[in-house]
């Protein structure tokens, strides 16, 4: 059964938390980097077949899902014997902001909303991506899960975040491309939960059965001069 339409009245929202990879930025960069570029460089360094490198590394990656190690560049540099930050610089031209993200961030700033980038990304990844894009200046704060010692997949994350930056869950929106993270936020009580189904420019968009889905953040910007939209 499809979800009933969600009425978003911006007069009732004070705070907006936004994920980075796949939500604001095209996840094509990350998918290409971890699934193609790193295995290729690992195979070259170790003198093994690239398909064998992929099989080994994919197994290693899966073992760290939903942990901080999943996004810890220092951890993977040590595990793989590669300088992961340097390898990211090799393909940084693929880092891209999704369409309409800047317009949405500008809308939030113009209407006095508190806007936070809340991500599992490691600090070295954040530095690279904020350096390569123009979105950093729109945020009131940037919080990495590594700062809190918990990934967003952990139900305790949102309480730890609230201690760092006070917010009222009933008057807060979260935009995410992870249904797992949206679920932990829902359990904490965050009211407005938005699933970004178009997380990569190279993949077909997905539709969530459990959360209201958008493809572009322009869908959350009122067009009639008012402050309400339905999705």
From TrEMBL:
Keywords: Hydrolase. Its EC number is 3.1.3.5. GO terms for biological process: DNA repair. Pfam families: Hydrolase. It comes from the Bacteria. InterPro entries: HAD-like_hydrolase_sf, HAD-like_sf, HAD-SF_hydro_IA, HAD_sf. This is GMP/IMP nucleotidase.
